[in-house]
Specification:
With about 260 residues, the protein is α/β, with parallel strands linked by helices. Helix 6 packs parallel to helix 7. The protein is globular, with a radius of gyration of 19 Å. The two termini are about 25 Å apart.
Length: about 260
């Protein structure tokens, strides 16, 4: 579990995060949503230590990440897996070598053990057979799955995903969503996903935090969205007239139940 307590972040005279307090739960897909410029990316960067908050706490199972020394933070990051908006694979390394990279850097395994672990992770994302290919030889969706395999190679307790479906078609995005949700439950990870994808929100949103102008505007699950009375949330989720009409029909016909 990751708990955020009264988190503020300012850049010179601009306050970007304004007293955010929330909990990201174990074994669930925790989604951060919000308009561009709302502060959700800054929030995630504060969670993983790429930025230091102006004030507040980030607690990893009770451990205050903000107050840790540099050495303690390095050790803590070994418990984290990261999936970037671009897959961020090394073009000069094979798929297998990309997945092995964190193991080569941080584990004390033998070469054979590292290869075995990497192949296990590739099997979990259905990529056995692609291990000798290079990133340029596989599709964008496959590259994202390689990135997921690499992120889970060190068996992290916490998994951070920045727009994992960016640039993918709807069918491939669904595969990525189902994969992330399945791995989250299998390994009981605290998974945090920064996303604009409304299909992800409605499909795997087990704990959703909506950020508006730097503060937490709303928190709930995907099933609560249809009946939400928070106007800022509904304006964000149902931005198109078509979606607004669909929401109205659902409510008027009694298909939504709290």
């Amino acid at each position: 579990m990751i708990e955020v307590r009264d988190l503020y972040k300012s850049f010179e005279d601009k306050e970007v995060l304004k007293g955010i307090s929330t909990v990201f739960e174990d074994g669930k897909t925790n989604l951060i949503i919000g308009q561009s410029g709302s502060g959700k990316t800054v929030l995630m960067k504060n969670l993983v230590g790429l930025l230091n908050p102006t004030s507040g706490q980030v607690l990893y199972d009770g451990r205050d990440f903000v107050a840790m020394s540099k050495k303690e933070k390095v050790h803590m990051r070994r418990e984290m897996g990261m999936i970037f908006q671009s897959a961020a694979l090394f073009d000069s390394l094979t798929v297998l070598e990309n997945v092995m990279f964190p193991l080569d850097m941080f584990s004390t395994m033998t070469l054979r053990e590292r290869q075995k672990r990497a192949m296990y992770c590739l099997d979990r994302v259905n990529l056995v057979g692609a291990e000798e290919k290079f990133p340029g030889e596989i599709s964008g969706g496959m590259q994202k799955r390689v990135a997921i395999a690499r992120a889970i190679s060190l068996n992290p307790k916490y998994l951070f995903c920045d727009e994992p479906n960016s640039g993918l078609d709807p069918k491939t995005s669904l595969v990525i969503d189902e994969l992330l949700q399945g791995l989250t439950k299998e390994f009981n990870m605290t998974t945090i996903i920064n996303t604009h994808d409304m299909n992800s929100v409605m499909g795997i949103g087990e704990n959703i935090i909506f950020i508006y102008e730097g503060h937490k505007e709303w928190q709930g699950v995907s099933g609560d969205i249809m009946g939400s009375t928070n106007q800022r949330l509904t304006d964000f989720i149902f931005a198109s007239d078509l979606l607004k009409d669909m929401r109205r029909m659902v409510i008027e016909n009694g298909l939504y139940t709290k």
